[in-house]
Amino acid sequence: MPKSENQSDGRSRIIIENVQPVVDGGFYPAKRVIGERVDVTASIFTDGHDHIRASLFYKKEINAQWIELPLRHISNDEWIASFQVEEKGNYFFTIHAWIDHFETWYDGFKKKAAAQLELKVELMEGAAFLRRLVPANSELKTIAEKLTDQSKYDAAIALVLGERFAEIVNQNPLKENVTKLDAECKIVVELAKANFSSWYEFFPRSSSLESGKHGTFKDCQKLLPRIASMGFDVIYFPPIHPIGKINRKGKNNTTKAEKGEVGSPWAVGSDEGGHKSILPSLGSLYDFKNLIAEAKRLGIDIAMDIAFQCAPDHPYVKEHPEWFVTRPDGSIQYAENPPKKYQDIYPFNFECVWEELRSVFFYWIDQGIKIFRVDNPHTKPIPFWQWVMAEVKKKDPDIIFLSEAFTRPKIMASLAKVGFTQSYTYFTWRVTKSEITEYMNELVNTSSRNFFRPNFWPNTPDILPFHLHHKNDNIFILRFALAATLSSNYGVYGPVYEFYENAPFQGKEEYDNSEKYEIRHYDWKRTYRMTDIMTIINQARRENKALQSTWNIQFCSINNDNIIAYLKCTDDLLNIILVVANLDTQNNQSGFLQLPKAKLKLGDKINLKVHDLITHEHFTWTQEWNFVEVDPNKMPFHLFKLTIEESKM
Amino acid sequence: MPKSENQSDGRSRIIIENVQPVVDGGFYPAKRVIGERVDVTASIFTDGHDHIRASLFYKKEINAQWIELPLRHISNDEWIASFQVEEKGNYFFTIHAWIDHFETWYDGFKKKAAAQLELKVELMEGAAFLRRLVPANSELKTIAEKLTDQSKYDAAIALVLGERFAEIVNQNPLKENVTKLDAECKIVVELAKANFSSWYEFFPRSSSLESGKHGTFKDCQKLLPRIASMGFDVIYFPPIHPIGKINRKGKNNTTKAEKGEVGSPWAVGSDEGGHKSILPSLGSLYDFKNLIAEAKRLGIDIAMDIAFQCAPDHPYVKEHPEWFVTRPDGSIQYAENPPKKYQDIYPFNFECVWEELRSVFFYWIDQGIKIFRVDNPHTKPIPFWQWVMAEVKKKDPDIIFLSEAFTRPKIMASLAKVGFTQSYTYFTWRVTKSEITEYMNELVNTSSRNFFRPNFWPNTPDILPFHLHHKNDNIFILRFALAATLSSNYGVYGPVYEFYENAPFQGKEEYDNSEKYEIRHYDWKRTYRMTDIMTIINQARRENKALQSTWNIQFCSINNDNIIAYLKCTDDLLNIILVVANLDTQNNQSGFLQLPKAKLKLGDKINLKVHDLITHEHFTWTQEWNFVEVDPNKMPFHLFKLTIEESKM
User: Fold this and answer.
1) Residue A383 at interface with chain B, using a CB cutoff of 8 Å
2) Are A71 and A17 in contact (CB under 8 A)?
3) Rg of chain B in Å (alpha carbons)
4) Comparing C-alpha atoms, which of B290, B210, B313, B301 is closest to residue B519?
5) Which residues of B touch A9 (CB under 8 A)?
């Protein structure tokens, strides 16, 4: 908890507390990305009625020069100052505050003058302040002399009450006995992509245009133009390493694979290699590097999956049995969640394998990888992640880590605090208006905002959520639109979603014939209604800065619980997006939506141009409450761009 | 913010965070009184599914032995352990947590046994754990041997699943790779009186039974039996020092006193002496010490007023002009709040007077004073209070300080954090049901609870609140009952309240003919309806432990916003008080009140004896919702004592 120092000499009388943004009282850094504004707030107060001034000091990197900004009082002893972070790296800030006796005197002087009190001594005091301020300043010296010229009392009063004197007071803070915050608060500033990214996941082995063939990186390369034209900027592959042959899983997660079955890519390693190798059927390292380079050319990063676990035939098992737990019978401990056994997976013994795992990250970074999606980080020690991510950032500060932890809230938060750039979320299961609103408020309007960057996924290879089971394309479109407009980071397990796959395995939240255990064939040449919507929304995200932040959301009142409406706008209000979505994907719904007048700085005369970015319809709104209607069979949501027109009054 | 250490060796895998009770992340100590329970809570979690155990360590004084208590998991990674503080002084606590691999193994074993899996290797693992636990324990050794006796596999399984084995697991935590909280959190434990006190304020100069005579300490002594029989345990006097004669204030705060006017006791000091002297008209130091001793004998502490400011003729002004601010014309700076001037008061220059002011406290402590009510602490530097109270506590840890700061919330909080035992509050202006409920929740259910002990006053010599202006005795009785039952510390500016004084000065929240500027004559021999109610309520407070805490309040639902109802009970439910008050002091009000069944651990059969401690009526409640009625003209509130009867089922 950053606090002001207690200087017991009676002169440093100010308390500075409740400083934001900090995470766990400064134990972890707060996070921002390049171009974001940092609002530093603090409670600053002192005894009595003296005037306080306070400065924010911030700097880029620990050895840089401090930049000083005045904090201003908002209300109830809360102060604020803001600055923009323009470079990646570590920023630091701290706060100084002091009592400005000159300003206190000036304020008292004005009140006494208004009450027509005798002010002779006050003028002498004023002159003394001026001489203390900048002794060498000739203007201030002259004024000081005039104030004490007893023969020109009225002129002296007029001088103090004049405009120039107000400027002098304002521009010359009398900075004495400064109270200093006893901490330098750290902000980690990352690439803009940490906060704004659109992920498309597919299994490279399902990339072949030819049915029944194992896809290769070369096939993937052929899909790049399709995915690029849809506007995605991250392609995420499940693990690309050799797949364990011992205890290999078969179709629909059966415990024994039939001959020829390809197994789960998350069972990493075989006699063909381990975490630093590539499954030969996918191609060579050369192919992979070509793919990375070609994707890069199209503005796409390839995100790699990091699954720190081994198949029984992973080379590590023979070469380094000490990296695993050995049971009393000499066998290696497989994964289990009693009474369930996962005998195709050996977990690492995290008491001794840290350096090797760091080398895995380093290896792939050397091949050109910039983004890692980390599989189940919550089943590995949190201190390990803190260490390894710090090590990686030392090598390359641009690396992005996505935490795939669908677990209890405190653990998800903790992983984000120790350094994960982005995190999977509960969005996948937040369906009703109140669920979505509450969750967004938790993410955006609590301390979470300073460390947890959500990445919203309507589905994953592990999760076909119940609300999509056997449902038509309306809800797929709705959930996609919500993910991509609520959160500036979002992703989709692409092909099955694009093609509306809705069949669960045995009624569970798993896909039937899950691609995790078999190769799929997709008709990559086709496009669907969803393909177009993905394209349009991604384009809107690129073109509208308001959609490039998660933190600027404001929900709008609407008299229909089936409709959720939210506004996103840039600080300058030059870009305003309004999403109006119908959560009832069967029926037409309508209602009256209230514009947040304060947020939009709207006066009594409203003149708002409304442009639907999907249908290209245009409207004009002149009221605070406006009728909206959403027919899910046409389009389950509106994506409005609002423009505030100059009032013609 | 106390956090667990980050031990980067891969074995210490637990996170401990969000530890309570702490104030500002441990920057200030939390407060408790003797006999209170301390609930220590923390978020404790780790990766994966391993079983966690956690211990609370606490000790009295820094060099004592730690006492270890197990924490238990509540839900969602929140843990708790509680202990009672039985002595005054500083307590410390910290938390250790570790993964118990033995318990993890045991839990898995039971699940696997239930699924009838092969358990040979598990038995070997169990034996190894037993040998690691307490190698010298012969019972454990024998069991370990039995587990690995291959010829008796079924017996071995039965042994692990048996009762004795469960006990062994429970009693033998396998404490390895312990994660330790990186802080020792401090709790200051004070006298019970810090949390439970009943204050009666009067001006000693108005204590004479004879009209027109200046009261003396000897007169005060004659009033002691009256006040003691009413059940008060603190008598608080406005300052008893010589009163300034220069610029003395007259009746109703006029700037010039007429000859013979007595002035305001807060204008401290004259040629008769200063902060260590007594106004001669009140008597001698000997009289004062006698009064303190006699009060003590009756269970009453005399609370002294500390007003750190001087009249212009205070001896300090001549002897130590450096303790004041001198203006350019050589005059001493008087108090002001421009354009208002308070020329009867010189504020100290707090840059240099700390030691002398400490000596004022020390002097009166040497005369027998244990309680100080501090006048306007918010106009003196907060670091001064932090220092001087710590100094005083070194001399006598039993001293109680009441902060008279009616100012902005953060400053009131800050004064409490730096050491004030009790604080005046906004209760004086909280009138409606929602105002009272919200305020109590703020005091009791936020971090405030750990440092801010409220003292509720329905009036003070400075405040006749608007809602009492020209009102009848019902509202006086109501506000008294609320103060004395909502808060375990409360006080009243006694005689004017007892006698229902309701006339304001010029419509302001000031008393007309305020006793601050003149001597009053009270008919101390009379008692009023209010006198009786004060007596009964104070008796109820003494006899019912539930009323001796502010922290145990629970508001009850009732379908009438004119009635406020709240329950206070001891943890063991052996003492339960229910207050039902009618905020409409004109009309009879009634409604249905819901008993908080969970809190009272009531089942479906309810059998509750209800005894009205004022009217001595008796009822039996057998329902969750019960009819209540309050006729303000009989009594504006019910003070019920509830007794849970054994169900006769």
Assistant:
1) yes
2) no
3) 31
4) B210
5) 351
* Total residues found in chain A within this entry: 649
Longest pairwise C-alpha distance within chain A: 110
pLDDT band at B608 (very low <50, low <70, confident <90, very high): very high
CB nearest to A339's CB, from B48, B117, B124: B117
Query: Which pLDDT score, from 0 to 100, does residue A150 have?
Result: 85
**B428 lies within 8 A of chain A by CB:** no
The candidate with the shortest Cα–Cα distance to A448, out of A423, A413, A415, A421, is A413
Q: Which two tokens stand for residue A278?
A: 């590539």
Would you say A513 and A206 are in contact if contact means Cβ atoms under 8 Å apart? no
| Residue A484 confidence (pLDDT) above 70 | yes
Looking only at the bridges linking them, the beta strands covering B576-582 and B15-20 are: unpaired
B13:A49 CB<8 A: no
In three-state secondary structure terms, A104 is helix
Mean pLDDT over each residue of chain A, to the nearest integer:
95
| Amino acid symbol at A349 | N
Q: Which residues of A touch B329 (CB under 8 A)?
A: 120-121, 124
Return the bridge partners of B640, or none.
B578, B612
Render A112-161 in DSSP notation, one character per residue: HHHTT---HHHHHHHHHHHHHH-TT-HHHHHHHHHHT-GGGHHHHHHHHH
Contact between A328 and B7 using a beta-carbon 8 Å cutoff: no
Burial, A329: exposed, middle or buried (Cβ in 10 Å; 0-12, 13-18, 19+)?
A: exposed
Q: Which of B17, B128, B386 sits opposite A24 (nearest CB)?
A: B17
Question: Is the CB of A124 less than 8 angstroms away from the CB of B379?
Answer: no
Task: For chain A, positions 349-368, list CB contacts with chain B under 8 A.
Answer: 350-354
Contact predicate A568/A549, CB 8 Å: yes
Enumerate the active-site residues of A. 375, 404
Reply yes or no on whether the pLDDT at A649 is more than 50: no
For residue B556, pLDDT over 90 is answered with: yes
Cβ–Cβ contact B128 with A under 8 A: yes
3-state DSSP helix/strand/coil % of chain B, to nearest 5 = 30, 25, 40
| Catalytic residue set of B | 375, 404
Mean pLDDT comparison of A2-6, A208-212, B224-228, highest-scoring range: B224-228
Task: Summarize pLDDT for B468-477 with one digit per residue, the tens.
Answer: 999 999 999 9
pLDDT of residue B649: 46
What residues of chain A lie within 8 A of the CB of B43, using their CB? 410
Residue A18 host element (H or E): strand A15-20
Mean pLDDT over all residues of chain B? 95
H helix runs in A38-78, sequence order: none
CA distance B303 to B371: 5
Residue of B nearest to A5 (CA): B383
* Pairs of residues, one from chain A and one from chain B, whose beta carbons lie less than 8 Å apart: 166
DSSP secondary structure letter of residue B358: H
In chain B, residues 88-127 whose CB comes closer than 8 Å to chain A = 107-109, 111-112, 114-115, 117, 120-121, 124-125
CA distance, residue B17 to nearest chain A CA (Å) = 9
Cβ–Cβ gap B6/A47 under 8 Å:
no
- Closest residue on chain B to A415 (Cα): B47
Of A535-549, B137-151, B198-212, the one with minimum mean pLDDT is B137-151
- Only one residue has tokens 């002893």, namely A77
pLDDT at position A2 is 66
pLDDT at A393: 96
Statement: residue A6 has pLDDT above 70: no
pLDDT tens, position by position, B105-123: 999 999 999 999 999 999 9
Show residues of chain B in contact with A79, CB under 8 Å.
none
With an 8 Å Cβ cutoff, are B378 and A48 in contact?
yes
Q: Which of B72, B67, B70 is nearest to B93 (CA)?
A: B67
User: Looking at the complex, does the CB of residue B590 fall below 8 Å from at least one CB of chain A?
Assistant: no
Other CB atoms within 10 A of residue B9 CB: 12
